[in-house]
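Changelog note: in this version the structure field was regenerated for every chain. One regenerated record is shown below for reference.
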Amino acid sequence: MNEDILKRLDEQDKNLTAMLESSEKMRKYFFWTLIISVAVIILPLVGMVFVLPSFFDSLILSAGL
């Protein structure tokens, strides 16, 4: 009976280790997804704040208004 309990504890330990590795991979995946989303969406929006005013100024000057 004691060996049976030890065997089950070993199996549970292996399962917990596998779950930990899987959760760490998912955490890293979500982290890099966040970084890429910020780079693709937020940074261009911030860039537009600086580019659009100069674009509109040049557009108004070229139209002669």
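Spot check on this record: The first helix runs from residue 2 to 63. The CA atoms of residues 26 and 36 lie 15 Å apart.
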